[in-house]
Amino acid sequence: MDLNRYFERIGHHDQVACTLSTLRSIVFAHATSIPFESLDPLAGIRISLDAEAIFDKLIRRRRGGYCFEQNALLAAALREVGFEVEELSARVWYNNFDGTTPPRTHVFLAVTVDGTRWLADCGVGGSTPTGLMELDRIGEAQELLGETRRIVSMDERLVPTSMHQVRHGDQWSDVYEFTGETMPKIDQEMGNWWTSSHPDSKFRKNLIVALLNRDGTRCSIVNNEFLHRRGAEVVQRIHIGSRGQLSDLLRDRFGLELPANADVSPLLG
């Protein structure tokens, strides 16, 4: 893990130590610098979870990625610094378009600092947290930059299960559920294959790009709509009607290039 290249990519210039402040600054810098994107599945390009392939894509080629790439890179960097990191599995309910039970195809991080476990996640697209959450602080609202989140128990489950939620106005919205079970690399490979290859995966059927900005606002593209929002408030909305317009938005707002063989025409207009 080339920490210097990684820190250059995310614009992190602070002192580094195994402290909570360092953890906060690294996670925030990563989340606001490397966009969430699913362009490769739309283009039929295989996503590799090899550590070198992820580093090459997200750091050298300055691309983005989804959870298996984003949080693998983040975990590698944090371990290089000296943090104790676990990779945990989850089911994402955020943007669950058809309402059916989602597959267990999300990985997020639990990072222990001075005996406290912190939820760190740079891979939930438009719902990527603006900061860290205390993983074992159940039922209490936690204030992050410009947003409120919580972790609640789902008592009716046979296996103890928690739900990560975010508040929009007066309503709590589900982000993902988890049991605390770790997600070994082989399980991440299985989840990555389904997410990037299965015809029913939302990433094979939808264009999804998102980036958290340093002021707490978010930019996102879902199919033919670009949004710049502050919480639930829409600051700017753009209807995307052509491939050229999409290419311009990807380049100007996210620093990304649209792959030449990405079939996006059915999603636009």
From TrEMBL:
Q: Which Pfam families match?
A: Acetyltransf_2 (PF00797)
Query: In its UniProt entry, what is this protein called?
Result: Arylamine N-acetyltransferase/N-hydroxyarylamine O-acetyltransferase
Endpoints of the signal sequence: none
The UniProt entry's sequence similarity note says: Belongs to the arylamine N-acetyltransferase family.
